[in-house]
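quick one before i forget lol
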Amino acid sequence: MTTILKLFTCGSVDGGKSILIESMLGKEKLITSNAKAGELDSKTGIHGEEINDSIASNDLLTEQEIVKNVTSRYYATASRSFIVADKLGREQSMSEIALGAFFADLAVIVVDGVQGVSEQTKRHLRICTLMGIQHVVLVVNKMDLIYYDFKRFGEIKQDFLNSTANCNLKSIVVIPVSATQGDNIIKPSNHMPWYEGLPLLPYLEEIDANSNPNSDSFIMLVQKVAKLKFNDSFRELQGQIESGTISVGDEVLTLPSNQKTNIKGIYTDSKKDQAVMGQAVTICLDKDVDVTRGCVLVKDANLQIADMFTATILWLDDTELVAGKSYHIRVGAKVVTATVMALKHKIDINTGNRISVNSLLSNELGVCDIALSENIVFDKFENNKALGTLSLIDKITNKTSALGVIEHSLRRSTNVVWQNTDITREIRAEQKGQKPLTLWFTGLSGSGKSTLANEVEKRLVTMGKHTMLLDGDNIRHGLNKNLGFKEADRIENIRRIAEVSKLMNDAGIITITSFISPYKDDRENAKRIIGECFVEIYVSTPLEECEKRDVKGLYKKARAGEIPNFTGISSPYEVPENPDIEIDTSKFSIEIATDIVIKQILRYSSEGLQFEHPYHGIVPFAKQNA
């Protein structure tokens, strides 16, 4: 079984990358289709294995997108297979350089021997290392045009090595070649007897770019928990062996559940006694354990389990990234909800300098802190590529918004534990004789949500209920007075309110909130924080009516450009898709609207029911009062 080397070629325009690849591999008739490259890198038929259904197809999306975007080609020699990702080095393709580097195990940076190391060469090097590349080959091409000058080659080599001082690379090799003449491509060149290293292809065939500190430790990512086929007792786990070997009878540990079990059976295309790194396998265990898709099987690997870490990411989305936004995150085979808690800085790809920012734009590199909805298994990228890379996925479009590498876990995620108390939410609620809820009023400024929320609270208090009203303007005078109205501040504003609401629900109180809360993701995050107590009430009064009312004169100022980022005018309001209650206060009096909300709340409170059918347009109540 041959091993695969994923390499990425980059460098200056007209440096001769394509001719170099053709000279190295094309002349040997080793080219196959792009589809073959995608297939081999898809983590199904890894390393020449028969394609195995142990890997779920949607896990392949990110790498297949990368392969497609950076033009990959597949080659094979007697000792190694190659997937080569190639992209032009023009200035406008910096994101493609980062995509290619993210995909690869090794970067081949090509420079023109006449021009030498340029600023663009240094940028490509910096991007490659930021995206996790640890092995670099500098190919000094067109040596024939400088008459195979040893001195000139030495100058270029030293210039490049000076640029790698802070790159934390495991290996750096500089090879002089002439792609058009075939010098030092496959065989040593007679024109450069002074070069004592290997030619390019033999070097690429020999280098071990996949090694990591855990290479001898068994690690398997569980990509699928299958129906019983080989095992008549317990579930079968399918996935790829990332490192080490496994044999029937070996004891393994399941992460993150930390349960021990033994290997009862191993299957690839047939029953095996042992499996090794790179193979896609089905494994049967000797007892039932808590394992789901995204878990990891190990023998003695030192992996990390946490729910917060710092990562370097390449932002790909057209919409800017701001702190507080939530996404799906994929690490290994695990997909959970993640929130970008803080943007630490942006990295200038031209200088490597760190720049303090509040947002990341498309194609920008940055370092951020990410919080997850649950503990997952991961590792630093330099230790384990499979568990050290991540992708952020937009919850709505399912498109990849960012790619990145994990730098380190955050200590708070393991040192801060939840302290259980004897007096629970249920006890506090029973004391008050009510079911705690959070009534989340959302709508445009002037829609009537604050007035309606106030009336609802008054009605509940007269009924003997324990309540607390949190109004948007009032909260900004205290708890959130340090927040403005930019997107990042709005996100943090809603997050804080959701946490406060949850605390009040824990106290057994019915919490009523009145906030514009314009972003769908933020409301979903609030619902996730608050849980089953969350009731979304959309006050759907049209913008025209809200402007007509304009009690505070805000719309007039916004139209005049005096108030930036004003919702409905210069900042968007994302309409709730399926609110629990929807009310247009331009069509009904505040008394009727209050009656409807109270009726729904009492039904929810007394019966403990979820809202089966949201009220839209208040038709049911209108008919009752016709």
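fyi The longest strand covers residues 334-347.
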